[in-house]
Amino acid sequence: MADNKATLKAGDKVVELPILSGTAGHDVIDIRTLGSQGYFTFDPGFMATGSCESSITYIDGAKGILLHRGYSIEDLARDSDYIEVCYMLLHDKTPTTQEYRDFKDTITRHTLVHDQVNNFFRGFRRDAHPMAMLCGTVGAMASFYHDDLDISDPEQRLRSAYRLVAKMPTLVAMCYKYNIGQPFVYPRNDLSYAENFLNMMFSVPAENYKISPVVSRAVDRIFTLHADHEQNASTSTVRLAGSSGANPYACIAAGVASLWGPAHGGANEACLNMLQEIGSVDRIPEFIDRAKDKNDPFRLMGFGHRVYKNFDPRATVMRESCHEVLAELNIDDPLLNVAMELERIALSDPYFAEKKLFPNVDFYSGIILKAIGIPTNMFTCIFALARTVGWVSHWHEMLSQPGQKIGRPRQLYTGEAQRKYNKIEK
Ligand code: CMC
Questions:
Q1: What is the CA radius of gyration of the chain?
Q2: Where along the chain is the active site annotated (predicted)?
């Protein structure tokens, strides 16, 4: 929309800036020429900054809408599966039956990691945090495939994307097995993506693991609901790393690192640790009071979201799965009772209503993962596994766009102005 313009008056300068419209969501003011006029914009935390153009995922935070390639997350979670969602994110269309079969087959046949990857694990302490091992081993994949990668070739980019999506469950399960001292379990091609992951996690040589269809469906849903989420911290990290031309394994390792923090993907682990700390239903009010106290840094983990300000549509679907899994497994865990009661109390508390704080996807996914026997310190790895397809789709999209520039923000400098240096002896 060339004649749609914003006018900025700054000092004695008047600058006209084009307003660009997407297919949905806020219009954006194109400020790219502002630097040459002597101004930068200032937006730490990216509260109102569009960092790129993208056609992968759309979020309307006020209405609680999440669309992947235009399809609603509710429809996808109900009627699709993770493999189809991966195809859509990477290829910008739904697959035909044959394309779905071929894609599934390709992913299945790339699940094995090079046997030398086993050696990397031996370098870690046996109690290393699984996210630390995941960061390291994903980055180390670059050492196997770096020479096989021309990132300007879309076919080669997709090949790396398939490798990453396929091998991530294998690496995540290896992190777990290494922690608990059990032998690594090789992937099995006769199982679905979620079943194969569960089998690599829980199977032991002496005994076959029986996979519950309710559990594998819930895990597939967790993967689907975490597959992508627009320009969040880790995706933006992957894009920024990729903008320099870095190889995809290094970029995804950067994404894993960014996801680790408790304000982002680390929230599911932090949430369960918080439930542990609360310990019993009668202590919930004390923690609710702490969350409201401005002088206490404590926050209710698994509550709130930067973009969703009414509800998190992923949490609505996840909540449904959560109750399904708890009923199927017939679990009586005091921690899960604390979670359910915390959800009830927080949802009826005016403070949380006023600040638009509600349980997010990580609150419920953490409860499901705990119920199916996945240890808390593995939760963020599972988020990383599921988000890999989103990261790599954004990386692929970015490199497909002509005129792509290295990401290089500027700053508001508040240090010393230039001053004279005196030699140390003076
Ligand atoms: N518990 C208590 N108070 C909170 C919480 C919380 N979880 N989250 C926000 N607030 C309050 C905060 O104190 C502030 O109050 P005031 O206006 O009086 O200063 C107000 O709500 C706004 O908070 P903010 O930090 O400015 O909001 P933000 O949009 O920058 O932060 C968030 C979003 C997700 C980082 C934050 O809500 C939070 O720390 N939540 C807990 C961590 C969490 O569950 N993260 C997972 C997000 S979903 C998965 C993902 O996408 O990674």
A1: 23
A2: 305, 362
